[in-house]
Write a structure and sequence with these properties.
Number of strands: 15
Distance between the termini: 80 Å
Order of helices and strands: HEEEEEEEHEHHHHHHHHHEEEHHEHEHEE
Strand content: 15-25%
Largest sheet: 5 strands, mixed
Strand order of the largest sheet: 13-12-11-14-15
Helix content: 40-55%
Radius of gyration: 29 Å
Shape: globular
């Protein structure tokens, strides 16, 4: 192979990997207006360009190199004005153009896109579904309004069944098409409460949504859809508030875990789930999927909210506590610390309570219940330790002085304190039960007496 051919091949490779992905825009109606162009990456809305529409309304938006070829949703927004404006766009992984066919017409009526047939098809599919659902709802109301012995009842009933069948056929079409637009419509349906199954008990309808997310959802599409957090939170809520079977949750998450090949998407999923499950106090569910996430090898760094999968999970060893010992030496404050061992055979169990004094009614309620039942706990051999997220000494002291237990601590660093970090506590209250050997038995946001 000669050097000239190798050089040519190298240039071709460079050209194909760096080829720009452009959207040519024509919006003279917004001449002089400032705008923002964003794309979606999981739970983030990334602003990739800001500018001002030139006098002739013609300009070009370019997808940055690190996102090319971008296949997903984007949003072009007019900024700095009361009236606003702009549009949502589907970026099909290639160049295309968008604009207004007539500048004096409303944007929603005269917007055009060329070299982007997928966007047109997506719009047609949305309209087809809307038509089916409109007729279905009308017939459902008619069936409920008329009695079976009414002359028109059989007509309404038949049309009602026709629309149920039409919706089923439409859902099947979306599934078999397997393109971005079809996946996107099913994702948007979740955010609007439109289930793959129209009839049945509310529980069954919700479960059909959960099963779609577990078995059929296209995760790369969700990642660029702008609906990432909503869909994941819906899936988690159905599991934790409706199904309430941790073993099924683990099984369904394993399906999702095996399906996602991109480390970036997988890490974002793990982070988003950690956020919502921590907020809901569902530490049992976090601990249940932690082994799957760690075994996947798709998360390279466990920091921030991802630490909940590696630190102080149920079944793991509890970290010892770092207790501040503040002393005054030669009129200077010396911040020394000591280690408080968690594993202690003199107790049957240890209850760690992480709380904050301000803006946490649940913390106050749990602390009151803990105080009321303290004698019962000590009788059962339970040691109580409270760790405060307070940053002001006076605030901490005023509350803690009423505690009937002696092990009450605060380092005045808030939730950035070492103990909060070591136990992956991202919100208060968090209660952690530990056996005498230092093994974590449970985590949660409340304790039952």
């Amino acid at each position: 192979m000669n050097k000239k051919f190798l050089a040519s091949l190298f240039l071709i490779i460079i050209f194909t990997t760096t080829k720009a992905q452009n959207i040519d825009m024509k919006y003279a109606v917004y001449a002089g207006k400032s705008y923002m162009f964003v794309i979606f990456q999981g739970d983030q809305q990334k602003t990739i360009y800001e500018g001002k529409v030139p006098a002739n309304g013609k300009f070009t938006l370019s997808i940055p190199r690190e996102y090319r070829p971008y296949n997903g949703m984007a949003r072009w927004l007019i900024t700095g004005t009361m009236e606003g404006g702009g549009l949502d766009m589907y970026i099909p992984g290639k160049d295309f153009s968008a604009g207004l066919a007539e500048d004096n017409m409303p944007i929603e009526k005269s917007t055009f896109q060329t070299d982007n047939t997928a966007f047109t098809e997506m719009g047609n599919l949305f309209r087809e579904q809307t038509s089916i659902l409109s007729r279905y709802e009308a017939m459902q109301q008619a069936v409920n309004a008329f009695s079976p012995d009414d002359t028109n009842y059989p007509i309404f009933q038949q049309e009602y069944q026709n629309q149920l069948k039409a919706y089923g056929n439409f859902q099947h079409k979306l599934k078999t098409r397997n393109d971005y637009g079809s996946h996107f419509i099913r994702i948007v349906n979740i955010t609007k409460g439109i289930s793959p199954q129209l009839t049945g008990a509310p529980v069954d309808i919700a479960k059909s949504t959960e099963q779609y997310i577990s078995n059929e959802l296209d995760w790369p599409t969700l990642y660029t859809s702008g609906h990432w957090s909503t869909v994941i939170n819906t899936w988690l809520s159905i599991h934790t508030q409706l199904i309430k079977k941790p073993e099924q949750f683990v099984e369904d998450f394993r399906k999702i875990s095996n399906k996602i090949t991109s480390p970036v998407i997988y890490t974002n999923l793990a982070k988003t789930m950690a956020h919502y499950l921590s907020q809901q106090g569902q530490d049992e569910y976090i601990g249940a999927i932690a082994p799957i996430i760690k075994e996947s090898g798709k998360v390279s760094q466990y920091d921030g909210e991802l630490t909940v999968y590696t630190k102080a999970t149920v079944g793991s060893k509890a970290p010892d506590l770092i207790i501040p010992q503040q002393e005054t030496i030669n009129k200077k404050q010396s911040n020394k610390t000591q280690i408080l061992k968690i594993a202690d055979k003199t107790y049957q169990q240890t209850l760690l309570f992480f709380y904050q004094s301000t803006d946490c009614k649940t913390c106050d309620q749990q602390l009151q219940e803990l105080s009321s039942n303290y004698q019962m706990l000590t009788a059962k051999g339970v040691r109580v330790i409270t760790i405060s997220a307070d940053k002001e000494k006076a605030l901490y002291t005023s509350k803690s002085k009423a505690f009937p237990w002696k092990d009450a601590y605060c380092d005045y660093k808030g939730e950035k304190g070492e103990n909060f970090k070591n136990y992956s506590v991202t919100g208060a209250p968090t209660l952690i039960l530990i056996d005498s050997g230092g093994n974590i038995l449970s985590r949660g946001t409340s304790i039952s007496f």
